[in-house]
């Protein structure tokens, strides 16, 4: 899967991931102890938008939403555009979503291997620690103490699916979420099987906004592997799927799935 953060910023996969991230952090931040937020592929942090793009089938569809988790995402989104704007002028990456929720004593460690993106990320989030390093390889050292890890590989190569599973194995016991794209079910199901084989147990939650029988160039859906997270966070994500699907579906129908492993 060809991937560049800026090219796909604000698409339906981003929206699903970011709404879920809000649900996850809501639960983790109930604990008064400081939290370390770690991300493996942080990108630029903030993405200015052109006149058209994949965000038209993602962020734009939530632009006017006010209620619930989608409404909270939309308020962050609207806050990045000028007052009175009628559509998003920029969209946040996961680090900016997290920063909007994290408390002053929480910390952020963000990995971004591309130097130009790392430079932009430092400007977007000057209080975060940005490391120009392979985020998956760095996880055992980075995810120390009370931490949450968001893994978001580009999946440009088939090997990255296996690498992501092995990265989760190396941080066993740490609360984490692993995002993955869905254009067919072969690799997502192989990922779940590989995690189970490695002794990693959790829940996979998927949203399919385009029926899988309809092949297309963009995503049919996306999923999240959720491990060591509060049950209320998983329940919150599952509960919002019908609302998200009503906003994001492309052909009048949608599907969702929860897989325990």
Could you characterize what this model shows?
This protein has helices at residues 5-8, 12-28, 68-78, 94-101, 115-124, 135-142, 159-170, 186-197, 231-248, and strands at residues 36-39, 46-48, 90-92, 107-111, 129-131, 147-151, 176-182, 203-208, 221-227, 255-260. The radius of gyration is 17 Å and the shape is globular. Strand 4 (107-111), helix 5 and strand 5 form a beta-alpha-beta unit. The chain has a single domain (5-260), classed as Vaccinia Virus protein VP39 (Rossmann fold, 3-Layer(aba) Sandwich), CATH 3.40.50. The model has no long low-confidence stretch (mean pLDDT 96). With 261 residues, the protein is of the alpha/beta class. An eight-stranded mixed beta sheet has the order 5-4-1-6-7-9-8-10, sandwiched between helices. Strands 2-3 form a two-stranded antiparallel sheet.
The description of the largest β-sheet is: 8 strands, mixed
Determine Rg (CA atoms, Å). Answer: 17 Å
Order of strands in the sheet with most strands: 5-4-1-6-7-9-8-10
Q: Assign the CATH superfamily.
A: Vaccinia Virus protein VP39
Number of strands: 10
**SSE run:** HHEEHEHEHEHEHEHEEHE
């Amino acid at each position: 899967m060809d991937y560049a953060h800026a090219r796909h910023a604000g698409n339906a996969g981003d929206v699903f991931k970011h709404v879920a991230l809000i649900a996850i952090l809501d639960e983790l931040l109930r604990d008064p102890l400081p939290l370390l937020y770690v991300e493996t592929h942080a990108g630029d942090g903030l993405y200015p938008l052109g006149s058209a793009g994949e965000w038209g089938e993602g962020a734009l569809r939530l632009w006017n939403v006010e209620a619930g988790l989608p409404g909270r995402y939309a308020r962050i989104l609207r806050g990045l555009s000028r007052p009175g704007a009628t559509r998003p002028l920029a969209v946040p990456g996961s680090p900016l979503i997290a920063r909007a929720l994290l408390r002053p004593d929480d910390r952020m460690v963000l990995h971004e291997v591309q130097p130009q993106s790392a430079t932009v990320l430092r400007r977007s989030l000057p209080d975060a620690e940005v490391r120009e390093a392979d985020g998956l390889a760095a996880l055992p050292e980075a995810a120390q103490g009370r931490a949450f890890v968001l893994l978001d590989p580009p999946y440009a190569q088939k090997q990255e699916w296996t690498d992501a599973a092995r990265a989760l194995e190396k941080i066993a016991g740490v609360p984490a979420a692993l995002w993955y794209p869905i254009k067919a079910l072969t690799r997502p199901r192989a990922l779940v099987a590989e995690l189970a084989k490695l002794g990693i147990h959790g829940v996979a939650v998927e949203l399919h906004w385009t029926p899988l029988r309809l092949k297309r160039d963009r995503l049919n859906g996306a999923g999240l592997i959720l491990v060591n997270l509060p049950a209320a966070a998983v329940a919150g994500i599952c509960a919002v799927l019908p609302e998200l699907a009503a906003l994001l579906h492309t052909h009048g129908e949608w599907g969702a799935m929860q897989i325990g492993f």
